[in-house]
Amino acid sequence: MTGLLRAEFLKLRKRWMPYVLFLLMLVGAAVLIWLIGYDGSHSDDPEYAASGLRTFAYPYSVPALLDSGQFWGSALFVAVLTTSTLATEHNWGTIRPALVGGVSRARYLLAKLLALTLVSTVALLLALGFGVLLSLWATSVADATVTYPANFTGGDFVLMVSRAALCILPYGLLAFTMTLISRSTALGIAGTMGYMMIEAIIVAALGTGGDILQGSRILFLGHSVGALIAENRFAGLEYESIAPRDLNAPDQPGVWTATAVIVAESALLLAGSFWVFLRRDVTVSHG
Amino acid sequence: MLNATTTEPQGTAPDGPSVVLRTVGLTRRYGKITAVDGLDLEVRRGQVFGFLGPNGSGKTTTIGMMLGLLRPTSGHVELFGVDTRRDLTGPLKRVGSVLEDASAYPHLSGRENLRVWSMIAGGVPDGRIDEMLSLVGLSERAGSKSRTYSLGMRQRLAIAGALLTGPDLVVMDEPTNGLDPAGMREIRQLIRDLGAMGKTIFVSSHLLGEVEQMCDHVAILKSGRLLMQGEVSALVGQATALEIQVTDIDGALGLLSGLDFVKSVRRDGPRLIVETAEERAADVSRALADKRIYLSELKTRQSSLEDVFLEMTEDS
Question: Does B65 lie in the same domain as B37?
Fold first, then answer.
């Protein structure tokens, strides 16, 4: 497995795409802290100004960074990196030399999954770290006084990051599964991002319906993800976000229910991707 | 079906099975189309085995099933005596493969591609990558991105990758595709050298001359069915033909086709190739003259693999 992982890292390290995606995440963090948060805090609307302050001022910025980072990290970094990494192996035909070299399909897929998880984790944590640094800088130059929340510890920070990471996982696996099935970068990215966008609309629309419609939102990942992201807030305080979701949707599931749904759906996606890959033909042209 | 004899001993050699590759009733269907139909092949240790067939005959599908890329509809493959339904990855570690449309990571250099393949294979001794690059003549371009390589260079890189781990069996699907004549000659020589080193080579091709020059054994496939397999020397040596030029080629074709001592007749440019015994030359000449068709040239020739192939594929 070590050799397979080293091979994956070498292949990823030499591509330009992960660096561009990482740069986009840094730009997103800067936009959130300075443009939306810091600039917004100078608004004439006192409610919007307070919300802006909670977007850029540390540590209130942490939930805001994780909220936007979870959505765009899933949609941009994880989905694009995953689909591109998987689909190009089919497009270039390089999946075949690996499989005929005596590597089992399960190990091959597991190595891909582990490498993508590690690279995504490191990149998104670095982007979060960059966002926190910008937040500390913006807090230090802000003319408003920021009150540090009571009882906020490092453990709380880790718990917040873990919740956001758990919320990225199913979308990464969705991209993984869709790409394995379609063997196409375009379909993998469009499918994952399309699902995320449409899901946000459907979940919001169902929230306005009756009991049955509201209850059916539990089938959508976004509803449970929204519940966990909402849990990251300091005492439910609002902030500005660039993620299209409603954190105050009615009848959100509890933390444990949401976690169970996310874990179960992730497991289904993971099992589905392995089931398909272990059984399907790795196509070669017919001579 | 033509059967040529095998001179190698049957059974199991002390250091392992002498049959390194066997397919048993290997079949693959795509809907109503049968791409490979009940294929029984046997490749023994040390053979340079040519797998011949026209385009679309099922060669690549067969190779895909041998290497575990495609699932057989029925039948199975044995590699080094191991049924690959039970264990695929173990035997595949002893196989090097050059697949059709040589693939490489375009953003990596030739050397980095080989590094990736060596990592996947679990590592190779120091210097092995440079040794392989040198063997296939890519040392000077080893640092260039493979996207800048010609098809022939990518093919040679794929061959280097296939040989990286020192496999016991090398499977090559149309290895000279896209190569210029000099490159084709180099690859043919490389395959002969590997054979001389005792490696077992399984090489598919639709180029008959190529197979005749490289291989000691051959199997001929058409429409997914095995027409024959055997030694090249036995096939080529067993038949002779008359090569004739006549005043009326169409008339001669019709006439000779009807003679009971003529096995087959076919055109070869301005000539006719008449499959018959050498001593029948006078009978051929007499039969033509009786119909006022006159010979301008007659010579005997030993059948080439191409003759055998065309005879078998046309007959079938």
Answer: yes
Outline where chain B has alpha helix (H). 59-66, 89-92, 110-120, 128-135, 151-163, 181-196, 208-214, 232-238, 249-257, 281-290, 305-315
CB contact under 8 Å between B90 and A3, yes or no, is no
B residues 87-106 near A, CB within 8 Å? 88-95, 97, 99-101, 103-106
pLDDT-derived band at A162, boundaries 50, 70, 90? very high
Q: What is the pLDDT of residues B91-123, one digit of tens each?
A: 999 999 988 777 889 999 999 999 999 999 888
Q: What is the pLDDT of residues B60-85, one digit of tens each?
A: 899 999 999 999 999 999 999 899 99
Chain B residues with CB-CB distance to A9 below 8 A: none
Of A93, A99, A286, the CB nearest to B60: A286
Cα separation of B144 and B106, whole Å? 10
Q: Which of B174, B207, B230 is the last residue of a domain?
A: B230
**In this complex, which of A3, A15, A93 lies closest to B119 when CB atoms are compared?**
A3
Same domain, B177 and B295: no
Closest Cβ–Cβ partner in A14, A92, A96 for B99: A96
Predicted model pTM? 0.79
Do residues A18 and A12 make contact, with C-beta atoms less than 8 angstroms apart? yes
User: Are B201 and B102 within one domain?
Assistant: yes
Residues B12-30 have a mean pLDDT of 78
How far is it, in rounded angstroms, from Cα B122 to Cα B165? 9
Q: Summarize pLDDT for A209-220 with one digit per residue, the tens.
A: 777 888 888 888
Confirm or reject contact between A98 and chain B (CB < 8 A).
Answer: yes
- How far is residue A8 from each of residues A14, A66, A111, B120, B264, measured CA to CA in Å? 10, 27, 8, 9, 57
ipTM: 0.81
pLDDT tens-digit readout, A77-121 = 888 899 988 888 888 888 888 888 888 899 999 999 999 999 999
Q: In this structure, is residue B212 part of a structural domain? A: yes
The whole domain housing B304 covers 239-315
| Domain limit, last residue, from B230, B261, B287 | B230
Test A100 with B67 for CB contact under 8 angstroms.
yes
For residues B20 and B164, membership in a common domain is answered with yes
Which structure tokens are listed for A134?
């910008």
The alpha-carbon radius of gyration of chain A (Å, integer) is 20
